[in-house]
Design brief:
- This protein has 78 residues and is mainly alpha-helical.
- It has one domain.
- It is built from 3 helices and no strands.
- Helix 1 packs antiparallel against helix 2 and helix 2 packs antiparallel against helix 3.
- The chain is elongated and about 40 Å long.
Length: 78
């Protein structure tokens, strides 16, 4: 696995995610569907390598924390 390229792709995914949050909002089902599909594609691109899967899980959990903070009026930037 090309780890350098993987983390470049993760950085690109985070930037795209920020755009989707602004476009769709944390509370939209469309946003969470996008997150699910794109994280799955990221894992598949790297043959479901264990690092890729763990990174996807971490990103999902990070987004959940941000969404929960927003819902609790403890807003932080993504």
């Amino acid at each position: 696995m090309d780890y350098n390229q993987f983390f470049i792709d993760v950085t690109k995914w985070i930037a795209a995610c920020n755009d989707k949050v602004r476009e769709l909002g944390f509370d939209s089902s469309e946003f969470w569907i996008w997150v699910s599909l794109t994280l799955a594609k990221l894992c598949e691109r790297y043959n479901n390598d264990e690092l890729a899967k763990k990174q996807a899980i971490m990103l999902w959990e990070w987004l959940e924390e941000k969404a929960n903070a927003l819902n609790n009026n403890n807003v932080e930037a993504v």
